[in-house]
Amino acid sequence: METAQYHDAVVANRRKHDFEAVDVETNGFEAVWEAYDNDATVGAVRIFATLVREDAVSAPDDIVSTADEFRDILIANTAEGERTTPLGYVVFAVPSPDPSIVEAAKSYTVAQRRTNVFPLVYDCEAETLHRHEVPRLKGRGIYKRQAADVERLFEV
How confident is the model at residue 67 (pLDDT cuts 50, 70, 90)? Predict the structure, then answer.
């Protein structure tokens, strides 16, 4: 699948699931979408999502720095004392990514500064989405939520 086709499919999914475009400064991200939801396990969540151009990632450090930048967007767009859990998904659509890039996304520190950001890598050639695994023990709620969001929004 071409990266443009993947992008179009994700945009269609975000519309289908009522994600609205964020109309604020997005630090160079082309489009950022958000939605609110009430999760039985996690509580009220505010979800942010974006897709990253394929030429924006060439090394594992690109995954980390871009995910950190996206975390800043979550922080900037979440009011002090807001009673929601901010979740962010930053998706890198890459043709045949190097295993080190996939590992950087899967091992990224998700929870930090009261936010949760999940970098995801979509392998356009294998048509496979790489995401964080759901842990077996403590802290499963956010990871289970991530798995469900990824399935409905980013697996095409």
Answer: very high
